[in-house]
Specification:
Elements lengths: L20 H30 L6 H23 L7 H5 L3 H32 L4 E2 L4 E2 L1 H4 L1 H23 L5 H11 L1
Antiparallel strand pairs: 1-2
Helix pairs in contact: 1-2, 2-6, 4-6
Length: about 180
């Protein structure tokens, strides 16, 4: 039985390893945290500018939470099969054609994740030569989110590929029942 309060999406369980559920839950919490901090920072930035006493460092804080939120969100959305997929194409197919298209889609996503991880890391290393104003923090602190996100995207797409080949990419009876209930 699943806990209704769980942050781990129960849809398409046949494509997920239970051992990574904690990571999905952690990433969802981090997404919520970054969204909340981004929102508070924007409000504080607006208020301090309106009263004539701007806190210039708030723009750095805002952009940091925004960037980390985007890249963490992309990784968790890959695990939840909510992002970076051409799901509509595969959903209409069954059997061998579905397995082929789902495999191709996930191989492309793995490639993109590895590309992000490698070139994000290269960009991260180069970011120590540039600095953010006014804090003089190396811009690499922003770039760190890219290779981390890429590695997680590749991991989650690999997880789905392996489990799709083992269990099937087709929707389970539970997923079909949930879809019907949502339509009613």
């Amino acid at each position: 039985m699943s806990d209704d309060r769980s942050l781990v999406l129960q849809r398409q369980r046949q494509l997920k390893w239970p051992a990574l559920d904690w990571l999905e839950s952690l990433l969802m919490m981090l997404c919520g945290f970054t969204l909340a901090c981004f929102s508070v920072a924007v409000v504080c930035d607006i208020v301090t500018r309106e009263i004539g006493r701007p806190w210039l460092w708030l723009q750095e804080v805002t952009s940091t939470f925004f960037i980390y939120g985007i890249f963490i969100g992309a990784a968790v959305a890959t695990r939840r099969n909510d992002h970076l997929f051409l799901a509509a194409i595969g959903d209409r197919m069954t059997g061998r054609p579905r397995q082929i298209i789902e495999t191709v889609i996930r191989l492309v996503v793995i490639f993109v994740g590895l590309f992000m991880a490698w070139f994000g890391y290269v960009n991260f290393l180069r970011g120590f030569g540039s600095f953010r104003m006014p804090s003089m923090t190396p811009i690499a602190s922003l770039y760190a989110a890219i290779p981390i996100s890429g590695a997680l995207i590749a991991l989650f797409a690999f997880e789905q590929l392996v489990n799709g080949w083992r269990n099937t990419f087709e929707k389970s009876a539970v997923d079909i029942a949930a879809d019907k209930a949502a339509q009613e």
